[in-house]
Amino acid sequence: MYNLPVGRAIQDYWIDAFQRSILFLDVLRQRGDIAREHNARLAPNVLSFTPELITDGRTLKRPVNYALVRIVPPAGIVINPDKRPFIVVDPRAGHGPGIGGMKHDSEIGVALQAGHPCYFIGFLPAPVPGQTIEDVCKAEALFIETVAARHPEADGKPVVIGNCQAGWQIMIMAAMRPNLCGPIMLNGAPLSYWAGVHGKNPMRYTGGLLGGTWLTALMGDLGHGIFDGANLIGNFESMNPANTYWQKPYNVYSHIDTEAERFLEFETWWGSPVLLTADEMQWIADNLFVGNRLAPGGLCTTEGTRLDLRNIRSPIIVFCSRGDDITPPQQALGWITDLYAEDSEIVANGQTIVYTMHQNIGHLGIFVSGKVATKEHAEFATAMDMIDVMPPGLYEAVITEVDEDTANPELINGRYLFRLEARSLSDIRALGGNDAADELRFAAAARLSEINLGLYETLLAPWVRAMSTEQSAEMMRKLHPNRVRFAMFSDENPLMAPVKALAENVRATRQPVAADNPLLAMEHAASDWITTWLKAVGETKDTLTEKFFLTTYGSPLVQALLGLGTGEPLTGRHIENDLLREATIAKRRAELEGHFEKGGIADALARALVYIRLPEGSADERGFAVLQAIRDSRPPGERLSLPALKQVLADQFLLVEFDAERAIQALPLLLANEPELRAPALAALHRMVKASGQLSDEGNRRLARVEALFDGPKSSKPATETSHV
Question: What is the pTM of this model?
Answer without folding.
Answer: 0.93
